[in-house]
Each structure stands twice: as C-alpha cells, then as structure tokens.
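dude i think i finally got it to work??
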Amino acid sequence: MAAGPDLIFVGQVTIDDVVPAEPGPWRRAVGGSALYAIAGARLWIDPARIGIATRTGRGYPFDLEGILKEAGVGHTAIIPIAGEHLIEWLIYEEDGSRRSLPRNLAARDVGAEGSPTLQPFYDVLLGISPTASDIPPAWLPAPAVHLCPQVGTRHRDSLAVLKDKAGWISVDPSPHYSRKLDAAGLADFLCGAAAFLPSAQEVRPLLESMTPIQAAEILHKVGFPEVVLKRGAEPTIIAVDGIGISMQVTPVTIVDPTGAGDSFCGAYAANRLLGHDPVESVRRAAISAALVVGCSGAEQALGLTLPAR
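look at this
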C-alpha cells in the first residue's frame, strides 16, 4: 500500500467569478484557500508529499483532479456533495483591494455581519467545508496537517478527529468565529493546534486594546505553542518559546492580493515539516506569499517555482 501524504491540507475550493478593476469582461476561475495553501507549500517540498481533503458540490465546473495532478500533488480526497457549490463574485477595486459577494440564489440574502440573514450563506459555505473526517483513514496518522479557514465549528471538529493522529497541526482561523472569542476562548476552541496563524483582521478585538506583539504573546501564553500574526505589509509577529519577535516584510509589487495569507500558511506548514524553526519558516513563508501576489489566480499560483539563486 502506498504511503500517505506527509502534509495534509483540509480546506475549501471555490468557484470565483472575477470582476477586474479595469472595465472588461469577467472570468470564471478556480480558487479556494486550500489551493493557495498548496501553492505556497509546493515551493518548498515535493508536492508528491502533499495531500488535500476537500469537497465539491453540484455544478462544480473544473477538473480539480487534473489541476492538482498538473501541480504534482500526490494525494487527493475530493468528496462530492449533493448541495450546490458556492459561487462568489470577486470584485476588484482600483486600489488593489477586493470584496466578495455570493452568487448562488440560496446564499444571496446577505446582510450585515452577524445578522440572521447571513445564515443562508453559511449554509451553502458549510456544505462545501470539509473536516478531518473527510481525510481517508489510510492517510492517518500524518506528520502534519494544516486546517485552512473554515466557518462554524469545522476547526474544532477537525481538531477532535485529529487528536493523536497528526504530529503537528496548524490553523488559519476564520474571522466569523475568531473575532467573537478572547485569547483564552480561542485556545479552548482550537485545543490541539500547535500553530495559530491568524491575520490581523481575525484577531481585531485583541488589537484594539494591545499591541500586535502583546496580542501574539498572550495567545502564546494561553496555549498556542506557536503564534504567527500576519499583518500584510506590516511586520509579521511571531510568539514562540515565551517571547514575541517582530519580522520586517520586504515590499513587493502586488498583481493580485488573493491567496497571500493562505500561501503564507501553506509554506509555513511545509517548512515546519522540514524541520526549520518558526523564524526561518516565516522568512520562507513570506517568499511564497510574495510570489503568489505577483501572479493572478490559483492555477497560475500552483505553477510557481522559486527563483534561481
């Protein structure tokens, strides 16, 4: 029997209808946090060592198996579901920012964050959101697992499944739950995670009352062995071994900001698997993110290679 993957990604794939900032036709593209995380990871490890557990719903139009095979990914678990797959408009602005809107009729009644009208969107999103229960049993135990952003209780559910079945687990949280919890609540909700990899927006309430280093150190103190706070062009904050460290970010030209955080997390997980310490892993993760924002779309990101040294 073939050995399972060394690094498993559990996360979503999406259908992205991309609307450019410049007047012109929109295009349909494959996307999703799991694909961008893999794009970041495969720059550092043989993609044959990578596995993905994801779901595709009714109407999913892409040859996902073929895309992953082209990227060299060695292990795929693509679970079909009966529900409709989520389609999102990705609307880009002239300043480089973007926003997303659900295109599915079943998910379109979206109001302000936290209002009851978000539930239809959550229902569709949850349908395509995998958990660790979607990982083939033959792949476990695994040396490392990365949980891409998920809503609801998906991360907590996955961590419960992976107890004693993964050597190291990292989590990239969703703001839909992370902004509702304090540091201790996050540590409890994500019990079992070795590395907590939020962006600034995902721990925004903490940053309203303390500095980024203080926030990372508190998250580390309450139970996360490794905390990496992603802050875009601002310095990345690492809290490990009882101390907080600020790492400068090298400015880069951004073609498309989509996937920056996901590719950073994927590269971080890959480099921790390789045995690099958190600081070196962050340095390498920043290289992956810089390459990904310099291209456009998940398929192009999955074909990236490291520049010759």
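The chain has one domain: 7-13+33-79+131-301.
im so relieved honestly
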